[in-house]
Amino acid sequence: MPELRVCFLSHMFPNALAPLISPFMVERAKALSALVDLEIVAPVSWFPFFRTEMPSQVEWFRGLKVRHPRYLALPSALWSLRWFPYLAMLKHLFGGAVLERNILHIEWIYPDAYAAVRFAEKRGIKTVGVVHGNEAIDYYGPLGYRKQYIETFSLLDKIIVVSADLKNKLIKEYLVDPAKITIILNGVDVEKFPIRNKNDARKNLGLSLKAVIGVCVARLSEEKNLDVLIHAVAKLDDESFLIYIVGNGLLKNKLQALIDQCGVAERIKLVGPVPHDEVALWLNASDFFCLP
């Protein structure tokens, strides 16, 4: 069997300037690097004339060497064209030479995989795409951009999904050949997420030892339905429990305003982002986990 030389490709990858973005990507890349010869490419979008701080083009992040090539950012109105600058970036990155990888492992379907399959098909490189959840393919509505996803799935050599539900969805709604799809459930690093004493975890975080505590770990974005959680708590007469929402996102101010409006500021707290290693501490401190 020939040596597997894999390029791990994802625009959603943490870096020194944004270390808390998609921490699971680092875990996946680390696990894969133990099995194959792995190169990590994490493109960063940019737009000229905007002086946005950018990560180094090459950096070492948590023991992994990561390349951060730039590609032109386009507004949401030009969403269907975002793959053009992404493809141009891939061609420029590898300079027209034959890519010294025999597999492109692509962690996001659009624009990453949509562009990558076009780059790879002319070079005889196999492609594997990963679907992590419904928001990865449904974010812009059930019908709005389905053509791009169907086309990408038809060109990928293999597709990894994280649940049987997603597999069925791809088959029924995106016309994917079932033979292409492999289910690989999300895993957990039990050394990073050990079982600890609840009271010790609470003392470490400065939380009440007596309260009933629920923890929600989520990005503060639409698809997480955190407004549902807030409204649900507001409808309950029982005030003996507390909810801590761990995470960050664009809806932070909107959710805080809703918490205040519903009169549950003493019962629901937005913790904000925490380091990946600290998430386990919050989980161990809780009596229950909730995610609507």
Structural description of this entry:
The chain has 292 residues and is of the alpha/beta class. It has helices at 23-33, 83-93, 109-121, 135-138, 146-155, 164-173, 198-205, 226-235, 252-261, 276-285; strands at 5-9, 37-41, 44-46, 58-61, 64-67, 70-72, 103-106, 126-131, 158-161, 181-183, 212-217, 241-246, 268-272, 288-289. The strands form three sheets. An eight-stranded mixed sheet has the order 4-5-2-1-7-8-9-10, sandwiched between helices. β11 (212-217), α8 (226-235) and β12 (241-246) form a beta-alpha-beta unit. α2 crosses α3 (109-121), α3 packs across α5 and α7 packs across α10 (276-285).
Q: Helix proportion of residues, in percent?
A: 25-40%
Series of secondary-structure elements, N-terminal to C-terminal = EHEEEEEHEHEHHEHEHEHEHEHE
What percentage of the residues does DSSP assign to strands (E)?
15-25%
- Gyration radius (Cα, Å) is 21 Å
Could you describe the largest sheet, including whether it forms a barrel? 8 strands, mixed
**Helical run tally:** 10
Stretches with pLDDT under 50, minimum 5 residues: none
How far from one another are the termini?
Answer: 45 Å
> On the 0-100 scale, what is the average pLDDT?
90
* Sheet with most strands: strand arrangement: 4-5-2-1-7-8-9-10
The total of beta strands comes to 14
The helix-and-strand class reads alpha/beta
Basic shape: globular
What labels would you give this structure?
globular; eight-stranded mixed sheet; 21% strand; four-stranded parallel sheet; 292 residues; alpha/beta
Q: How do you describe this structure in short?
A:
The chain has 292 residues and is α/β, with parallel strands linked by helices.
